[in-house]
């Protein structure tokens, strides 16, 4: 679909603000140099961002003989954004200023029996009301919520959350009805939100072709091209975890056999280890995976064999992604990578040349995400920020036509 002039303006606006967030205070001239936009274009966009309450002038610097240049920074004392990571076992809520710095957070455990929309929304509302009471009157500019499963972004509907057996739940409408505050709500799933987080504040900033591979209980890949999240026709792009690497392999929760997720998702890893070691069934899923990582570091045969087998499957999946998408960068994230990345990454790198085509592989950079921040909550807040920036069409840009 052809981009409109407004699409281009919004994309340029995102680019300008990303640079301001990453490196401030700075001047219009330096932002223009970093973004490859003209100074006039940057000046117009900055005027809009100032009118929108997102950017402020914070001083001046000498310009080498000319007039002093105004220095710019995000308006960190103004409105705030809320990003929420809703998972099967917790609700993690973070409040961000417009520099995407955390100013408050709430974490609530979610019992596995609390899986109805009403129960999940109850925890979410409690968290939002808790932080709202501590904001001292600062306005909430947007609320981004990451929900597991498939999400209809435009309709605000959780179309399918398999672990909760949700189908077509009008989540945004139900949440809005119970909120005390009037705030725009943006929904998506963890694959999309974490990719947006990488674009704004991670390794993906400035990368033209990005794939973010998330390894956890579920598995998937978020895709972004030229700084924009790629959603596909039905917001289903990135279901890489449900591509087949072995048609005779184990059954996946999606119903098919031999999916990537059925080989490298946390339950699959523990099932494989459980064939060799009974410790795989001890404690929670997270505790068992931590035990596997400790056993691998200790050089125990069952753990080494398990990690090698998982690495082979992961290399197959990543190679397929590289051959199809030809990304500049693949970022490996997720709690499974935090536990096992030390063992998985070297094996994946060693095996990739056996599966991936030579030319796209040469152009590839493979990284493990070492961010200590919750990238899902950050990405959800960034979605809310993008929604707020779309109001740019109603401020200065309109008055200058």
Short description:
This protein is of the alpha/beta class and 401 residues long. The protein has 14 helices and 16 strands.
Q: If helices are DSSP runs of H or I spanning 4 or more residues, what is the number of helices?
A: 14
Secondary-structure-derived class: alpha/beta
Q: Assign the CATH class of the largest domain.
A: Alpha Beta
| Whole-number tally of structural domains | 3
Q: Write out the CATH superfamily name of the largest domain.
A: ATPase, nucleotide binding domain
Quote the distance from N terminus to C terminus: 25 Å
CATH T-level topology of the largest domain:
Nucleotidyltransferase, domain 5
What CATH architecture label of the largest domain applies? 2-Layer Sandwich
Uncertain spans: 395-401
Can you give the helix content as a percent range?
A: 40-55%
Overall average pLDDT? 90
Radius of gyration: 22 Å
Describe the global form: globular
Residue fraction in strands: 15-25%
Strand order of the largest sheet: 6-5-4-7-11
Output the helix-strand order.
Answer: HEHHEEEEEHEEEEHEHEEEHHHHEHHEHH
Number of strand elements? 16
Largest sheet composition: 5 strands, mixed
């Amino acid at each position: 679909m052809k981009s409109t002039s407004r699409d281009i303006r919004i994309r340029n606006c995102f680019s300008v603000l990303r640079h301001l967030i990453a490196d401030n205070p700075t001047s219009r001239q330096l932002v223009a140099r970093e973004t490859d936009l003209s100074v006039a274009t940057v000046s117009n966009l900055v005027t809009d961002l100032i009118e929108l309450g997102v950017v402020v002038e914070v001083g001046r610097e000498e310009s080498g003989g000319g007039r002093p240049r105004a220095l710019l920074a995000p308006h960190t004392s103004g409105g705030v954004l809320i990003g929420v990571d809703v998972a099967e076992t917790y609700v993690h809520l973070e409040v961000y200023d417009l520099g995407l710095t955390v100013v408050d957070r709430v974490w609530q455990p979610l019992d596995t029996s609390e899986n109805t929309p009403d129960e999940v929304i109850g925890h979410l509302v409690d968290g939002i009301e808790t932080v709202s009471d501590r904001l001292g009157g600062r306005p909430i500019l947007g609320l981004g919520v990451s929900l597991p499963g498939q999400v209809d972004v435009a309709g605000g509907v959780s179309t399918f959350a398999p672990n909760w057996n949700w189908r077509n739940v009008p989540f945004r409408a139900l949440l809005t009805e119970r909120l005390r505050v009037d705030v725009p709500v943006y929904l998506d799933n963890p694959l999309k939100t974490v990719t947006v987080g990488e674009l704004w504040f991670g390794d993906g900033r400035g990368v033209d072709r990005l794939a973010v591979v998330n390894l956890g209980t579920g598995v998937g890949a978020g895709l972004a091209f030229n700084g924009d999240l790629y959603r596909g026709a039905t917001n289903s792009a990135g279901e890489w975890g449900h591509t087949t690497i072995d048609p005779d392999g184990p059954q996946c929760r999606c119903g098919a056999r031999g999916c990537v997720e059925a080989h490298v998702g946390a339950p699959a890893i523990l099932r494989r280890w459980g064939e060799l070691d009974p410790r795989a069934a001890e404690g929670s899923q997270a505790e068992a995976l931590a035990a596997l990582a400790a056993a691998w570091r200790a050089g125990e045969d069952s753990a080494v064999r398990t990690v090698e087998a998982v690495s082979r499957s992961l290399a197959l999946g990543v190679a397929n992604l590289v051959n199809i998408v030809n990304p500049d960068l693949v970022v490996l994230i997720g709690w499974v990578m935090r536990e096992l990345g030390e063992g998985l990454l070297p094996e994946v790198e060693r095996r990739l040349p056996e599966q991936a085509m030579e030319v796209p592989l040469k152009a590839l950079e493979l990284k493990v995400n070492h961010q200590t921040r919750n990238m899902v909550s950050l990405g959800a807040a960034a979605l809310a920020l993008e929604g707020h920036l779309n109001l740019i069409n109603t401020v200065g840009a309109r008055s200058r036509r």
